[in-house]
């Protein structure tokens, strides 16, 4: 069953088309992530779902209730949708407890118990209840904003780049905490982000937007392995893109003969491999390997990204390719290597 249904949503601001015929289903209890470059329409779509903006055409329903169509527009405060903006947007004149309890219908002891329960759920200590927003760290402010949104027991939670202002380690910890919290509560969630790693790790369903259009949606692994076009491939991570001749389930390219899933007729195409599909060998003599030399080395701790320049590419000798390998085993610049591939290459649609 789907919690949220978007059907042919369109929105323009003057001559600028912000959303062009967006159709998307969000399953109940799932986590959907909307990704795309700046200006692709991600935040506009999120605001449309929240009820802060209304479409020019199309319809939107939540749990079977129509929120927007050609005859009705349910306002934001009647939708029971939680919203956590990028900066938390806490009320500066209210304490942590009052921010979390804002909008709660209960009073007195029951209200205080509910606030304490929410603080505990987002790992905020009880003694922080009397603090002011300016006395909190960025991560603590985001936890308060999340608790405030959860206080309303929303049917849907919207997260608009809530981790973008946090440092790398805290981002990962907050993302894991939010994932667990939403899963435990059974709340359907939509996250907007421009961080590819964040999107792939958080999502049950990934939706890629570009220039106001929904380019591709599906499971994160499916989109990562089988992107619809080169732009999507590169947006979701590093990619090795090569011209090739496809015939009988194989691609002939600069790396040799590589298996592909495409079984159509013979034709020229472009194929995609992820850098982790390239295997590096410093021992010469492998007849199946393509010879090359390490020309750049980007050490990143447990992982090192090498640039390997091919010495005998079939179509274009001298082509440079990124290769990932364990950081402690990365050969130095100038090392002669051989490259082999594992898995199948993806044939990009023409």
Number of helical stretches of at least 4 residues: 8
Describe the sheet with the most strands: 6 strands, mixed
Strand order within the widest beta sheet: 6-7-8-3-9-10
Low-confidence stretches: none
Total count of domains: 2
Annotation, overall tally of beta strands: 20
In CATH terms, what is the fold-level topology of the largest domain? Rossmann fold
CATH class of the largest domain: Alpha Beta
Which second-level CATH architecture of the largest domain applies? 3-Layer(aba) Sandwich
The span between the termini is 34 Å
Strand and helix order: EEEHEEEHHHEHEHEEHHEEEEEEEEEE
Roughly what is the average pLDDT, rounded to an integer? Answer: 87
Domain ABC transporter: 4-236
Keywords: ATP-binding, Cell inner membrane, Cell membrane, Ion transport, Iron, Iron transport, Membrane, Nucleotide-binding, Translocase, Transport
Protein name: Iron(III) transport system ATP-binding protein
GO molecular function, one term: ATP binding
């Amino acid at each position: 069953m789907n919690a949220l249904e978007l059907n042919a949503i369109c929105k323009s601001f003057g001559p600028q088309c912000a959303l062009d015929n967006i159709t998307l289903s969000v399953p109940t209890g799932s986590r959907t992530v909307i990704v795309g470059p700046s200006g692709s329409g991600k935040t506009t779509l999120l605001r449309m779902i929240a009820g802060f903006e209304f479409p020019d055409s199309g319809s939107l329903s939540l749990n079977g209730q129509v929120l927007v169509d050609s005859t009705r527009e349910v306002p934001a405060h009647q939708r029971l949708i939680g919203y956590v903006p990028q900066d938390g947007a806490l009320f500066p004149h209210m304490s942590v407890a009052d921010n979390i309890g804002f909008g709660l219908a209960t009073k007195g002891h029951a209200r205080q118990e509910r606030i304490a329960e929410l603080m505990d759920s987002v790992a905020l200590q009880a003694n922080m209840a009397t603090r002011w927003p300016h006395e909190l760290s960025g991560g603590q402010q985001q936890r308060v904003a999340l608790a405030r949104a959860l206080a309303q027991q929303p049917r849907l939670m919207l997260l608009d780049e809530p981790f973008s202002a946090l440092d790398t380690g805290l981002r990962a910890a907050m993302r894991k905490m939010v994932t667990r919290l939403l899963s435990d509560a059974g709340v359907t969630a939509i996250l907007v982000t421009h961080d590819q790693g964040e999107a792939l790790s958080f999502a049950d369903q990934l939706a890629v937007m570009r220039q106001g259009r929904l380019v591709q949606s599906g499971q994160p692994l499916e989109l990562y392995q089988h992107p619809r076009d080169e732009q999507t491939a590169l947006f979701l991570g590093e990619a090795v893109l090569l011209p090739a001749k496809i015939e009988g389930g194989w691609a002939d390219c600069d790396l040799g003969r590589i298996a592909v899933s495409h079984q159509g007729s013979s034709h020229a195409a472009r194929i995609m491999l992820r850098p982790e599909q390239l295997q590096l060998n410093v021992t010469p003599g492998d007849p199946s390997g393509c010879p090359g030399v390490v020309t750049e080395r980007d050490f990143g701790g447990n992982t090192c990204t090498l640039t390997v320049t091919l010495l005998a590419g079939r179509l274009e000798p001298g082509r440079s390719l990124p290769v990932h390998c364990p950081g402690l085993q990365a050969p130095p610049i100038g090392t002669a290597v051989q490259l082999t591939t594992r898995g199948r290459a993806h044939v990009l649609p023409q």
